[in-house]
Amino acid sequence: MPWIATVLLLLLPATLISRPANGASQRTFEIDYEHNCFRKDGEPFRYISGSIHYSRVPRFYWKDRLLKMKMAGLDAIQTYVPWNFHEPKPGIYQFTGDQDIEAFLRLANELGLLVVLRAGPYICAEWEMGGLPAWLLQKQSIVLRSSDPDYLAAVNQWMGVFLPKIKPLLYENGGPVITVQAENEYGSYFKCDYNYLRHLRTLFRFHLGERAVLFTTDGNGDQYLRCGSIQGFYATVDFGPGSNVTASFITQRHSEPKGPLVNSEFYTGWLDHWGEHHSVVSTQAIVQSLNEILAHGASVNMYMFIGGTNFGYWNGANTPYAPQPTSYDYDAPLSEAGDLTSKYFAIREVIRKFKAIPEGPIPPTTPKYAYGRVALKKTCTVVEALDTLCEVGPVKSIYPLTFDQVSQYFGFMLYRTTLPKNCSEPTPLNSLLNGVHDRAYVSVNGVPQGVLERNKYFTINITGKAGDKVDLLVESMGRVNFGRYNNDFKGLLANMTLGHNDEILTNWTIYPLNIDSAVIHGLIPQSMVGTPSNYSLPAFYEGSFTIPSGIPALPQDTFIKFPGWTKGQIWINGFNLGRYWPARGPQVTLYVPVHILKTSAPNNITVLELENVSMCDQGKYFVEFVDTPILNATSGPTIRNSKPFSTEGQWEDL
Question: What predicted TM-score, i.e. pTM, was given to this entire model?
Answer without folding.
Answer: 0.93
